[in-house]
Amino acid sequence: MREHLPILLVVLPMLAAPICSMLPRGRQAWLLATAVSWAVLAIAASLLIRVHAEGTISYALGGWPAPIGIEYRLDGLNALVQVLVAAIAACVLPFSGRSVQDEIDADRQPGFFALLLLLITGLLGIVATGDVFNVFVFLEISSLATYGLIAFGRDRRALLAAYRYLVLGSIGATLYLIGIGLLYALTGTLNMQDLAARLPAVADTRTAQTAITLVMVGLGIKMALFPLHLWLPNAYRFAPSAISAFLPATATKVAIYLMLRFVFDIFGVGFAFGRLELNEVLLALAAAAMLSASLAAMQQRDVKGILAYSSVAQVGYIVLGAALATPIGLTASLLHLFNHALMKGALFMAMGCVMLRVGRTDLDAIRGLGRRMPWTAAAFVVAGLSLIGVPLTAGFISKWYLVLAALEAGWWPLVILILVASLMALIYVWRVVALAYFAPNESQRREEAPLSMLVPLWLLVLANIWFGIDTRLSVAMAESGMRVLMAGPP
Amino acid sequence: MSPQLLMLSCLCLPLVGGGMLLLAHRRPRLRELILVLTAALSFTSALALLLQFREGNLLRLDLLTLLPGLDLMFEIEPLGALFAVLASGLWLPTSLYAIGYLRARKEEHQTRFHFWFCVAISATMGIAMAGNLLTLFVFYEVLTLSTYPLVTHIGNRGAVRGGRVYLGVLLATSIGLLLPAMLWTLHVAGTLQFTAGGILEGKLAPALAGLLLLMFVLGVGKAAVMPMHRWLPAAMVAPTPVSALLHAVAVVKAGVFTITKVVVYIFGTGFLGTVPAQRYLVYLAGFTVIAASVVALRQDNIKRLLAYSTISQLSYIVMATLALAPLALTGAGLHMVAHAFGKITLFFAAGAIYVAAHRTQVSELDGMGRRMPWTMAAFAIGALTMIGVPPSAGFVSKWFIIAGAYQADLYFVLAVIVLSTALNAFYMLPILHRAFFRAPEGRAHGEAPWPMRVALVSTAAASVLMFFFHAPILALTRSLTGAAP
């Protein structure tokens, strides 16, 4: 049993999904999905502990040893990302109970939870697997589930947003598929480790370089790296509240993880950054993302829109750290990957509470929120401070590392860039906070969100504070992930 | 009580008091009792801390370690102890004054007002006791944010606009300049600890050190050195108790305090003496002294006039600190206290006039000395302190700054002080003339409520007493120069 945990983690939500869709009531589906998400979190946590105690776990699917069979390979990096995905899922699912009841027709709720479980399956699978084609399979599972989930949004524009994501996401997946197809043609293997070992021999061919470019662009779409982010803002904005809380904290993070895995573990830093100079492309795109998306966020009239554009900017931060390719830079990148999931999850959850009570999330709906929904508004403030990067919040720690990395590399302009982007974050967060607390509003009625939503929301908010004060755990995890990446291809 | 516990109580007492205020939301009398008690207890603990410090105890408190080498920690040094006692000591009369003011004006959201006031005081204590630059920065930002609801308390369009300038300037300077300066310091020196003699000597080329110093002086927007001064007049939309304690004492002094700490404990006066560009910053501060006084000459609104006067007086302290002479540094420390007593009295008086007579302009003050003799007498003492006439506290501090200027052969500083003293007299004395030598007009009215009167008389008295009994303060500020050979 114990040795089958890596696969159980992926199979459990996959098997639960069809059961979910067959349940007659939304409530039952929700209960099942919540239970599954908690079980998944428990498994993921136990795997992470085991990885730290015993080192890398390799699991051969169906007993077929790698490189012939599919290998699931857990090390300090992806075990951490799995826990992140599972933890966010375990927070979002209890939260989703009330908001799904409110936003989605009763007869469609079982289907919603089934898709959500499939999405979790896909994300966990992408992270766990050590096989590039298997990655594609799970990428498609998660993407198809996402398209469906976004289309559940109450606003009719959700359909258009889902369709747009469908088109762009399919292009991304196709590019990725062609890329690994070319790699397979060149090397004859799909196993990541095997690929990494055989790639150097053929690295100088144009085919290999085309393949790498295709893979990177495909992943760039999935992780919403500027300028391939156009699908993201509306998808997050019009998706049901639970989904817009879940996606930014997990889906883009998993895509970023995949990019890190490809660059550092498969292609190798020396090749991807040294020869192909991808790091300069990534740096430029990251800088552009931070500035342009922050600028766009400042002009949004809808809080979910602000948060969505801010997510694009934060992807820039994460990529920036990785592109520096130094130990501190990578640590910063992984820390921000983790911390950003915490803050964006909390911020979007707060908006979910607003959606439930007010029915919309534009800036007018925020007016006087501090009085009407004091707990929700306070949660938004704390998570917003974390997003800005105020000391004593998680956001500060990751930005601090990022600044240190830039200083260490001697890149002064990057420090200024980070500070300017933080200042812009301050402006767009402050616009919301000022309206919530300092704008007069006629309705002073208390209409706080139910506890079932406030508790998960505040769990994430407290995590933001916790990881801003006691950084031992998060930094140690990020560093162990960093060591995996810095070790490079075997 | 152990020193560490004492430091913690300095920091937390105002917060605890603020929390209890919120609970007593529906019972105004209990709420106000809590406020006054909190202020008194805070003052007592700050005073106890000062006594402990004078006994030579090492007062150090490690609160948290965020990352290795990056911790929040407190350590008491002379200037910080002085600042803590000053801020908490003036909080006591201010809380009395605020109670009277808010009641007389029938302001809304009084609990919210008192609560944020408590938070601001706690942040001030954090700044005063900060043992490294990071801790100072954290509480500096808390102070900015916690005073925003106070500045915009009235909630009308003008208040929101003023609040936006306030927050915009203070946050933009601190994040845009102070934070990079801090990061640069950390990168170069490897630490942010306040250390006697500085941490930068021999690690930074003098030319670059000049740039770093510029970033610090302009980045500490709270010190209101031109061109970063616009937030202070904007903050005058706040209710008067806020202008009195925060924008004449706590916030602005936090600014000059930060600059002094940076000069003494980050750069070190010895190292800074070798930095050529440092001279230009003395000129910048001198320019601010004169320019702000000239602007003050043209103001008719009393609070705006006082704000520009504050800008001018703050740059006195910055200028004296940057003069790098031991005596001038002593003078800077003294002036922090002297100006605090004088300016808070002036603001108290301005607020009392507003409450009792609904007048806000200098031109409306005719005969006010006869209508409100206590208030205007206090105002006169405050004005004399600003000018620096004996027997007022301002004389003592100016004396030391002038002596320091001689010591360092800085005749520029000397000229600035002489000229600005004349300018101060030009904008202060006409007010006194109007109040005492012209006939009153309009309907008769009395003094402001008694809590306000008690407050302004006590600060005026302090301002006079400091002229005679400044030995303890002098000893403290002297030991500051002892820490910086």
What does this structure look like?
The complex is a heterodimer of chains A (490) and B (485). Chain A has 490 residues and is an all-alpha fold. Helix content of chain A is 79%, strand content 2%. A two-stranded antiparallel ribbon of chain A has the order 1-2. Chain A is globular, with a radius of gyration of 21 Å. The mean pLDDT of chain A is 88. In chain B, a hairpin with a 2-residue loop joins β1 and β2. By secondary structure, chain B is mainly alpha-helical. The two termini of chain B are 33 Å apart. Chain B has a domain at 278-485. Chain B has a two-stranded antiparallel sheet. The A-B interface holds A 390-392, 396-397, 400, 403, 407, 415-416, 419-420, 422-423, 426, 430, 437-438, 440, 468-469, 471, 475 and B 64, 66-67, 70, 134, 137-138, 141, 149, 152, 155, 160, 163, 167, 171-172, 175-176, 179-180, 183, 187.
Coarse morphology of chain A: globular
- Compute the average pLDDT of chain B: 86
Class by SSE composition of chain B? mainly alpha
Q: Which class best fits the helix and strand makeup of chain A?
A: mainly alpha
Give a count of the beta strands of chain A, DSSP E runs of length 2 or more. 2
Percent of residues in β-strands of chain B: under 5%
Number of helices of chain B: 19
Give the strand order, joined by hyphens, for the main sheet of chain A. 1-2
What is the share of helical residues of chain B?
A: over 70%
- Can you give the helix content of chain A as a percent range? over 70%
Indicate the mean pLDDT of chain A: 88
Give start-end ranges of low-pLDDT stretches of chain B.
none
Strand content of chain A: under 5%
Overall form of chain B: globular
Main sheet attributes: strand count, strand direction, barrel closure of chain B: 2 strands, antiparallel
List segments of chain A where confidence is low: pLDDT < 50 over at least 5 consecutive residues. none
- Largest interface, by Cβ-Cβ below 8 angstroms: which chains and how many residues each? A-B, 23 and 22 residues
Element-by-element helix/strand order of chain A? HHEEHHHHHHHHHHHHHHHHHHH
Taking the alpha carbons of the first and last residues of chain B, their distance comes to 33 Å
Structural Rg of chain B: 21 Å
* Assembly of the depicted chains: heterodimer
